[in-house]
## 1
Amino acid sequence: MERITATYFIETAFAPAKAAEVLAGEQSSGTFVAVPGETEELKQRFAARVESVEALETVDTPAIPGATSATGKYHRAIVKVSWSIENFGYNLPVLISTLQGNLYEIKQFTGLKLMEIDLPVSFGNHYSGPAFGIEGCRRLTNVNDRPLIGTIIKPSIGLSVEQTAGIVKTLAEAGIDFIKDDELLSSSANSNFNDRVDAVMKVINAHADATGKKVMYAFNLSGEVDEMLHRYDKIVQSGGTCAMVSINSVGLSAVKKIGDQKQLAIHGHRNGWGMLTRHPLLGIDFKAYQKLWRLAGVDQLHVNGIQNKFWESDDSVVRSIEACLAPMYHHNTVLPVVSSGQWGGQAFETYRRTKTVDLLYMAGGGIMAHPMGAAAGVTALQQAWKAAVDGLSLEAAAKQYPGFKKSVEKFGSK
Amino acid sequence: MERITATYFIETAFAPAKAAEVLAGEQSSGTFVAVPGETEELKQRFAARVESVEALETVDTPAIPGATSATGKYHRAIVKVSWSIENFGYNLPVLISTLQGNLYEIKQFTGLKLMEIDLPVSFGNHYSGPAFGIEGCRRLTNVNDRPLIGTIIKPSIGLSVEQTAGIVKTLAEAGIDFIKDDELLSSSANSNFNDRVDAVMKVINAHADATGKKVMYAFNLSGEVDEMLHRYDKIVQSGGTCAMVSINSVGLSAVKKIGDQKQLAIHGHRNGWGMLTRHPLLGIDFKAYQKLWRLAGVDQLHVNGIQNKFWESDDSVVRSIEACLAPMYHHNTVLPVVSSGQWGGQAFETYRRTKTVDLLYMAGGGIMAHPMGAAAGVTALQQAWKAAVDGLSLEAAAKQYPGFKKSVEKFGSK
């Protein structure tokens, strides 16, 4: 019978092997006194199994404050635990309740992070994964051999529908590939969702008719289930190609429902993610997290960016990009969305470390605030990426490309 | 115009007032360079506003490891920030993306927890809240003037449908008010969801026909949206009165969809909650959290229990019970679900500190492993609560009630 294996980074005042057994017991057949019906046969079939325990360092201070150890020592370890697929079948919420669930409540742990999930072969057949993924998003935008260049409508909130459409026109004429709503905006007092779709798609469709290039716009349809489905239909009917969802806020079941529609590329915005991962010994690692959303059908997933304005290290961003680009079954591969303080200067380090152009590379002010205008901003980003792939340094690229040189002068010291 | 106010507990290497401005900017009209269209008028209408900053202690070590301060000092504070309802209208996922969202990513914070949300009057009219709540659950179970006594089918996973129905029969005859699936079980290889509903409801309906008492069974329907709706209908058609949802795993939008059906009481299981709250300076406090789920229509919500087997302090559990019992608009009030290692002995401290019997009091082994059998286990819990309300001590209650005395002898040292 197929099994699902979860890898955890734990910290415990107990012997790690003992703590791992508590974990396995709590998440399968555990209760605080033995009860009738808990036979050996049942345990064999449905009990979680500790597969390995790899001891790491011992520390004097618990990772999560408040917990105390009689010995004053806290042991860290990597533990692997497995469950039979018979426990839940193909049910992502119950999978999560089993692999995470009450584990964070267990006082034997002063730290616990879900690092990786190994899913069985049959998951690849049951779930169809991203309907578009990298190849589909390239096809929809007609962009090959370089990252898709994207931007976010700013200010995040407050622009009228007409102002938004005006910015979209500027950006489309500038040669942008992708534009998105901010996650703060879905339907505001002066930017009704349907009105925004009408106004924006009028611009995008006219531009496509004139040039053959259809800009992908990710409309933030996050909301209640029926509302999202109506908005989804509105985008489809208007000739749009993409819908954005704040995946953590909307939640796994409703995102899966949206992914199942398969007519639009799904832009998965991970806002709220810091809460789930920022502490090194609490929550879930991106490597495990991204698998769940790929199964739910997300086509594009945020990974932050090199030299970003947030807390995350470059190493962590690189690992996230690699996680997204790792194949998963025969499914389409999810497109990593690089964003946060990007202006093109980071293309060099991003390419050096990942050797990929399969990215949606997002720049905000880096485009709209370019000294020579938005078109020059988009071109500068394309130039930066061409230079990076050609093996040029940032300095050499600035010499070769005057437009990019202006970006370096304006944004290079940020 | 109505505003929504969020209260945060923050830690920052910067001046707290400065950090609060960063927070407000990031979650409304912030971008890293000024862009066209960002007018003063727009900012006035849509910008988040720092309402107050209350400085607390300064510490030498950041709450979240990895962050460093040039001064070596980290300042803690309570800050209140407000947004106009015009920014998002009535949209819980976008509310969450705004009040939490990327905030946890901001490097200016070495700790940030959302402590409270103050919602405007109109939310109370737009959302209808729990369809049943405390009064509805009392009506469905015909229990007045004492806590509903409940239990969880254990072992959590692995029992056949017939075994489960057999345990339900024993428990129904024992006088139980409420039974639930474990969060690890929705539909397993040997306990198909629909088959379990058939078998369990056959027992419950027969018992109701014979005695007039219908046991409330919370079937765990957690899964994909359509699957949950089908399961919901199955429960309704079979005469069931309650559906359980793992709220964090399923997510806000899909739980709202289930709550909107209004034919079954919704048992909101908060497994995964520890990840969101266990760190004192990361995530969200229960006081804010429970409001969201009440708006989504959850009728019963887990709060852990006094002297529980998990990490949570009694003080925290008491605060959670009080949060649930606080009125919210004209809505039905959500029923706090007390569980984890409960056997009746905690009734005294629970009542002393909360002065309420508006609880669903869950005991697992405390019922099934009672030395005189399940019926005596249920009776012992009722006795414990009667004694607690009557002002007896545990010791006095054990003298007065022989059944409860057996509980004390078996579970009292745990």
## 2
Amino acid sequence: MIRVDISKAEAIAAVPRMTDGERFAVRQKLLAHPRSEWVGLPSVYGAEYVARLETAAARLRAQCGAVVIVGAGGSSLGARTLIDALAEDGAPEAYYCGDNLSGAYLEKLLVRLRGKDFGVVVSSKSGGTLETLAALRVLYAELRARYGASAPARVLCVTGDEPSALKRFADEYSCETFDIPANVGGRYSALTPAGLLPAAVFGVNIAEVLRGAASEAEPELSEAAFRYAEARNALYKAGFGTEIFASFEPCAERLGAWWRQLFGESEGKDGQGIFPATAAFTGDLHSMGQYIQDGRRDLFETVLRFSDARSALRVPASEFDDGLSPVALRRFAELNALAEEAVLDAHAAGGVPVIRITAAEPDGRGFGAAVYFFELACAYSCLSRGIDPFDQPGVEAYKIRIKQRLDI
Amino acid sequence: MIRVDISKAEAIAAVPRMTDGERFAVRQKLLAHPRSEWVGLPSVYGAEYVARLETAAARLRAQCGAVVIVGAGGSSLGARTLIDALAEDGAPEAYYCGDNLSGAYLEKLLVRLRGKDFGVVVSSKSGGTLETLAALRVLYAELRARYGASAPARVLCVTGDEPSALKRFADEYSCETFDIPANVGGRYSALTPAGLLPAAVFGVNIAEVLRGAASEAEPELSEAAFRYAEARNALYKAGFGTEIFASFEPCAERLGAWWRQLFGESEGKDGQGIFPATAAFTGDLHSMGQYIQDGRRDLFETVLRFSDARSALRVPASEFDDGLSPVALRRFAELNALAEEAVLDAHAAGGVPVIRITAAEPDGRGFGAAVYFFELACAYSCLSRGIDPFDQPGVEAYKIRIKQRLDI
């Protein structure tokens, strides 16, 4: 269950609740939108499809000491979120590329792959992402040089169903390929093969991830998502224009990068939108703590926590006095929860509204639920402000200019 | 040489130049400040001191397949910047902790260290950082269990000269220890042992880093730093309240995290200050590109580039048509530079002022120069607005509350 606590926001700005009728209308707008297919997906993917993903993933993993995830944006951040948080011990080493044009970066990657059997999962919704295709050329040349005719068996493809360069690549070399449904946008594709297939390669229990998302497709989740949407919209209206997503569990740091695309790309339009930023606590308190406490008062925080952080690790005893004897032998999980209370109290006291989102455990179910919750909340946030959550008209400006410069 | 190009900012907002007299006064204020010792440090550390750092680093490296850097904020971000960008091939694996209280994170770290000989570099200016001391307890218990009486030889300490818990630890176990000068604040300590010692462990040529910084201690650098400070202050005054630090070279991504602390912690005071955010291009164009192009028009960008990105890697030929034939056999470095021009043109056309900082090469000299340049520019930025660049009064609010809750 996802819970939303806005008490530390309401103390600073009123958060009016939409009427049931308003909420119903927003929900209807979402379901009527041609690009809302992701809403039903977690329940649509059945055991058979999951088994197909897992079989392909296991086959690749069995051949590889390292696997390179090639993709950008929605074709990378969802996968990386799940892998960073949930990869099993003993999984292959994970490397990422296809989201930049740096030759130095790719050269270093090739050095790191030396002496390691490797494979590739390449993902692009459009099938035409420049950086992804360029990186694929480099990696496929390396695979061919090393493995000859068996190179294609080391490449899994994820792409949309339309004709595209990546589709042609997959056909040309008969690579196993998985579809991103045509009506699911990149930033809503974490729970499609774009996120699930790479995650499965690293031993993530993707059936649990889907179960976590599907189990939440209920009135309670919708209630939580609306409350989060209402709070952030009210704060934005009250002049809080920057939202910092944070967690005190480092396993959620990459989820922040995914969250940033989800909300930034959905809302940042027509000169409007909450600016999305991220932090990892307590670490970033040592860098951003001063600003959050004392800088411009147009920030609010959204903090993701897990009700059971699971770890039983305790602060060890020490032979000498380092000032920590009062916490010796206590669980880190307990201390971390206390520190979180203390920090959020301090921020709220400093005028920073805090929204707290609580998921159950930081496992497959918890992350599946969190991802689905944020997707739903983002759609509600946008639709209740009259914004289309599924387009991104501004990205053409730079893409067109790059194509002109590169003559492609 | 560091160069600053503000033409894509001036086109959107005027950037008045301070008079020579005003600049002189700011420079004098900086040099008269009791905490400005870092200004001279790159020239002060001599060959003998560098040799001492390198000897200790080599001794640790020789024993270790993995080295854990334990520290937070200024005692971690500078080190990590240099290691991420410049670690040599074949260096030990790098792990980081001491900047969170997550038991799950530390447990995972212990799992990853299994079967690997490891060592520790622990760093804390105050010597009393809670998360750092707690993580040190965990790691030292593991070292003792594995290596018994020789455990202390696997720990290097970096701390201030005042009595502290970390100092007592170092004394108790006779660990080799290096000083952070008393008058150098954490966020200005990247070019002290806090950054240099861990970097040396991973094979970074720290003499080159210092040379890069010292070679820049010249009128040209001061000119560039003032121009950057003037531009960002003028933009802030004109209503551009959020600055995004970005680079098209992934090796500079971690420098962004360091930059964020430097500027955010120095300027975010009294309800004022530019909000510092970071991005890694082209990757984050796939997440934040829409917002930057089309969201709230109070953003500006500071983009770090390297005049020689060095890599000779070319886009390989391909047997089939993926649409990239016009760029086949061309250098990635060239394509990346063209993409950068295209993207920054698009952003400026969309109303986002862009400041471009150019360093020479992404090597030790280039990073040393960039670090020193940003430190100087930050001090100038603050002092010309009447802000103390070296205090952080707001961080006590959360620290006091944590201590109360944890009873320490």
